[in-house]
Amino acid sequence: MSDQKVASSLKDIDSVRTMIKRAKFNDHLFGMIGLLCITLILITLLILFMDLVIDGFPQLTNWDFYSNFPSRRAARAGLLSALVGSSLVMLVTFVSAVPIGVGAAIYLEEYAPKNWFTEIIEVNVTNLAAVPSIIYGLLALGLFVYTFDFGNSILTAGLTLGLLILPIVIVATRESIRAIPVAIREAAYAVGATKGQVVGQHVVKYSAGGILTGVIIGMARAIGETAPVITIGALTFIAFLPEAPISTTPPFLNFEWLTSSFTVLPIQMFSWLSRPSSAFHVNAAAAGAIIILVTLLMNAVAIKMRYNIRKKIKWQ
Amino acid sequence: MNAAKLILKRTIQLTSAIAIASALGACSTSEDTTASADAADFGPKAIVKIDGSSTVFPVTEAVAEEFQIDTKVKVTVGISGTGGGFKKFCRGETDISGASRPIKQKEIDKCKEAGIEFIELPIAFDALTVVINPANEFAKEMTVAELKTIWGPEAQETIISWNQVNPAWPDQPLKLFGPGADSGTFDYFTEAVVGKSKSSRGDFTASEDDNVLVTGVAGDKGGIGYFGYAYYEENKDKLSAVAISEDAGKAGVLPSKESIEDGTYTPLARPIFIYVKKSAAEEKAHVKAFVDYYLANGRPLIEEVKYVPLPAEDQAAVVAHWNALKTGTGFVGGKSEVGVKIKDLLDRVR
Description:
- The structure holds 2 protein chains of 2 kinds.
- By secondary structure, chain A is mostly helical.
- Chain A is 75% helix and 1% strand.
- Chain A folds into 2 domains: 1-61; 67-315, Orthogonal Bundle (MetI-like fold), CATH 1.10.3720.
- In chain A, helix 6 (154-178) crosses helix 8 and helix 10 (265-273) packs antiparallel against helix 11.
- The longest helix of chain A is centred in the first third of the chain and has 59 residues, at 2-60.
- In chain A, 41% of the residues are buried.
- The mean pLDDT of chain A is 87.
- Chain B is an alpha/beta fold.
- Chain B contains 14 helices and 12 strands.
- In chain B, 47% of the residues are buried.
- The chains are: A mainly alpha, B alpha/beta.
- Strand 1 (237-238) of chain A pairs antiparallel with strand 2 of chain B, so a sheet runs across the interface.
């Protein structure tokens, strides 16, 4: 009788052991598949990037490439107007999208009542992130260029891209605000903080890392956008720079650059790519490598900032 | 530290970094701009605004580049396509519009509504080049009728092999590559070959990027395509051009500077144009100076970017036309014409 029991329990242990073994094997298998996926993605990106760098190497290492204006001769053609154009457009995008986006997200998350109306807004904001960018271009053409008469200017482009990344900023901000434990809020209220203090000194402070990440990822998307910028009338050949935004003489700041016409990096790249001469394709590859580099750099900055901010937060 | 402050601080850091970067960029060329302040008679705000066809772009860009170096007047050139360029032109946003086809009646009406008068100036010739794969030895010479058989709307899904076009050719699958329906090149080719603008079969690989067409034909033994001469010139090692004969009896003519100038490369040689706003030409000295420069110094630049300059007497007629500021188009009802003589075209404008 007892022998039988022992035998059956031994059998059970064996079956449990095989079960554990199988589960462990599955764990490993899943891990391997995951690793394979990420390697595939990284290798693809790396091959693309290396290909651009190798093709564009002669121009990437040529200082004139960064300080020359576009030209009909590939060797003389440079990125300068596109670099400055992209930077200034990004500046306008940042200044317009961040306050509005973060403000809207804080309101939606902290102040807005939860009813069907805010529900509709929520769904729409999330959907806006999936709207094709050309639609923003068409909207901007009608609104900024014709109705407000901003012209084909840096201001128009910056605001257009600002609109484009607004949903990204809002969604990212809301996500990071939601990640703050309720206990933090309750603790702040418990010691008598007002709503403003809770939001300003705790919620936004602790979610700043996530907000920044969202903002920079949005900016990184905006810098590569071509379609909406072409729609509002970015140029292909422009061999002068807008007025510098800061000067050494009073009043130090000027806003004339906002009305200037411009070109941006992806358009410059596209224009070189569609040239008949293959010498221009070297320039296009170099420009492509630079766009990827700028994007990677922006993402790296986002990660570093988030890390620094999170390190400073101590919940005790 | 307060969170809002933190974000603000970061914002300021980032903003000033960008501002400094762009200011640095501006500094590196500030020498030019200060030097130009006294060199330019037109004032620092003078800008010549140009938009329009991507076919005309290389010529205009070359002229703009040289003009800007010589006079320090700012010039901007966009690529919105011929139609997109006219839209802006007729809204008064640009001074000059490049066009690879004549202005259409609809566009003329739009301009009229806005009170914009224009001067039509042919500036150069482009040879639409029909290309085949270098491995294709049999179709090095084709008649216009054969091209029509291949590209006409009736050919859709029926003409799929080379021997259907000419029984002497092998049973090789026909692979077609051509520009998209929005392009002026497509309009002109269909007009010249099929006889009716925009009338073409639809089952071909269409791309607005001519390099895609180059790659397509170069990679397919039975490939055939057409685009502007410059793309053939740069890819001679990968493609062969087809000699075109107007009628079955005539010898085929290859596209070249000579065959365009002496008028034998018909019907695929087409003029390209710039349209200048009359009020800009009269009131803005820098726009007038730019067009003067274009007509006076354009010839070597046109050759450099692989287009063919107008014959000398036509060029003189264009200059006279420009100096007299004659407005309007020489094309009846804004309709494209194949093989039109520049002289006749200008004479029709009164």
